[in-house]
Amino acid sequence: MRQFLKELPKCEHHLHIEGSLSPELLFQLAATNRIKLPHDNSAFASISTLEARYEHFTSLDDFLHFYYIGMSVLITSSDFESLAYDYFTRAHKDGVHHAEIFFDPQAHTDRGIAYNTVVTGLVAAQQRAEKDYGLTSKLILCFLRHMTADDALGTYKAASSLGHFSDGTVVGIGLDSSEVGNPPEIFREVYAAASEAGIRRTAHAGEEGDPTYIERALDICNVERIDHGIRLAEDGALLKRVAKDKTLLTVCPLSNVRLRCVSKVADLPIRKFLDSGVRFSINSDDPAYFGGYILDNFYAVQEAFGLSMEEWKYIADGAIKGSWCDEERKTFLL
Ligand code: ADE
Ligand code: ZN
């Protein structure tokens, strides 16, 4: 079964590129770029103390604190290129054929790194990965929901004015960071603009937030996907709607355990989603922080649920169908 899962053609839809920064690369870039890591936080004493701390996140916000410090070592285009190419190399080994990766421009522009520095590095890695591995990929620009709607709009306009949505450099928008207290409707204006312009739309919802966060993302922000969405299982009517509309949920099992959204993978509503015809993909979220890449997430689900090969085929085919690549690529992958 493990060989079957390894070889299954995979699409990854929920991967924060900044969340693939390993402690090794974090320390290496901190030294190269002369970035001071917080000396008052003993977790940053060494690679091993940092790795040990990553095993004890208490919530999404506890993780985000480390995530934003970690990415502060990324300075040049070449840093972003190395980061993304390392991820693609790893994803290729796990059988990923197509990846749609999130990036958080505001987390970089806010500390003086230009939007274009980030994108130039990511695009260079995408081109190399396609050439070296035949791995296709797309970028999804995420807005940080702990920042204002105006800031999100400004970021959207910066990307738009560079032609990044119209030329396909960026396929869509997303919404991440602290969920509870920062509901999706705050960002309705930027979602309306993206919708109007035919840009793809997703949002993190129902990770820590209750099912109304999912409903509001669908109704008010007109999203086409839901990232995480595990709390959908708590609302039967909404679950039926999501199944009927074939809205893709991008589920991240190891993340949900590390961030204490559930206490174990077996507590995730995977069986319920399968039995109700909800389309979902299995993803790694922030693999360097959560103890596993995409294949580790597949193995964890298999261990907890003992799915059949037919069920895995259904999941993998749904992931291809729910991808934002062109129809020709989908037909090739199916
Ligand atoms: N940013 C990176 N990972 C995230 C997650 N799991 N939820 C919300 N924002 C994030
Ligand atoms: Zn995420």
TrEMBL record:
Active site per database record: E207 (proton donor)
Cofactor requirements of the protein: Zn(2+)
E.C. no: 3.5.4.2
Binding site for substrate: D286
Top EC class of this enzyme: hydrolase
Gene Ontology, cellular component aspect: cytosol; nucleus
Keyword Calcium appears in the UniProt entry: no
A GO BP annotation: adenine catabolic process
Residue ranges annotated for the Adenosine deaminase domain, each copy included: 9-334
Residues annotated for Zn(2+) binding in this entry: H14, H16, H204, D285
GO molecular-function terms, A-Z: adenine deaminase activity; zinc ion binding
Site annotation Important for catalytic activity: residues: H228
Keywords, in A-Z order: Cytoplasm, Hydrolase, Metal-binding, Nucleotide metabolism, Nucleus, Zinc
Cofactor binding description: Binds 1 zinc ion per subunit.
SUPFAM superfamilies named among the record's database cross-references: Metallo-dependent hydrolases
CDD domains: ADA
Subcellular location(s) of the protein: Cytoplasm; Nucleus
Catalytic reaction list: adenine + H2O + H(+) = hypoxanthine + NH4(+)
Alphabetical list of Gene3D superfamilies matching this protein: Metal-dependent hydrolases
Family, as annotated: Belongs to the metallo-dependent hydrolases superfamily. Adenosine and AMP deaminases family. Adenine deaminase type 2 subfamily.
Role noted for this protein: Catalyzes the hydrolytic deamination of adenine to hypoxanthine. Plays an important role in the purine salvage pathway and in nitrogen catabolism.
Protein name per Swiss-Prot or TrEMBL: Adenine deaminase
Organism (species): Hyphodiscus hymeniophilus
Taxonomic path: Eukaryota, Fungi, Dikarya, Ascomycota, Pezizomycotina
